[in-house]
Design goal:
By secondary structure, the protein is an alpha/beta fold. The protein has helices at residues 13-25, 37-46, 65-73, 92-100, 113-144, 168-177, 180-184, 196-202, 205-223, 250-262, 265-271, 294-319; strands at residues 6-9, 31-34, 53-57, 83-87, 105-108, 165-166, 186-193, 228-234, 237-243, 278-280. The protein has two domains: 6-127, 3-Layer(aba) Sandwich (Rossmann fold); 165-319, Reverse transcriptase/Diguanylate cyclase domain (Alpha-Beta Plaits). Strands 2-1-3-4-5 form a five-stranded parallel beta sheet, with helices on both faces. It has a five-stranded mixed beta sheet with strand order 6-8-9-7-10, with helices on both faces. The longest helix is centred in the middle third of the chain and has 32 residues, at 113-144. It starts with 5 loop residues before the first strand and ends with a helix.
Length: 320
Amino acid sequence: MASFRILAVDDDPIFLLLLEHVLRRIGYTDLRCVSSGDEALKIIRSGEQVFDCFLLDIEMPGMDGIELCRRIRAVPSHRRTPIVMITAMNSQHFIEAAFASGATDYITKPIDDIELKARIGMVARLVDERRRGNALEDQLHAQSGLPLAQISFDDPIPVADVGGVVEYLGLENYVLTLGRLKLFGHAAIAFKIVNASEIFLAADAVSYLDTLANVASVIVGTLKTQQFMMAYAGRGEFVCMTARASVVDPDDLKLEIAVRLGEYRKLYEELGVPLPVVRVGEPQAPGFFTRVTPLALLDRARASVRDVVARRELMTALEH
């Protein structure tokens, strides 16, 4: 196994000893433990060591794990580093707050060896995948002299600094925490930037990320609710989980998004980037007597917005 550096933060020294013992037993030996958020931030901001994963206790005196998670995400070198929250509290409120602050996943106390191995194993595979991608880019750069791609059109790129927008893996893990009854109270709705591929080709990496952030902030402004969690899924698509009772008519959303984006037309023209055109899918909600997995609900939402785009393209072709 490649080096996998973990920073664990918990105010309980006995729990940290137990955690270290379990992690070593399942193969993770590069571990540093601290007892407070302030101490963790000092280490992180010093840059003396770059970590591959953070394990944060939610309930700590002073700075709790949720605030620490939020502050770690503000450190450029750790915007995408997996953060696993550890909690003895099963309240959905705390879980939602953790994911909203940028958490990747969570596990509950007392620690179960099998669950911890599965969760950390998933994170380790994610880190290895990112390392291979970075290594391939470095190799291509060395061989061709071309600039690094940095981002891929297909990838679920994290969109930073937009309230309520999380990493896609975090959204998936959040949805998985919802039981059947809680899932019934939610709906998934997807948004697609129809001309995303054109924007991707016309813009550099920074401009493309700025465009995604601009579209995300516009969508958030149209939702008219505080009860939502949204992520960028790749290929110009955003997926939002919201309270079922808060769903807004897709046509109304589309029109309002178009109006708000239209306010940025001059800016996009100056940048030489096409103005984003956004379509909205039909809200997808599970029926009370039908079984649908949480991740399938997200997939259905994305399929819905693709159908909307396809129907629009067909109508345009028939008109001409």
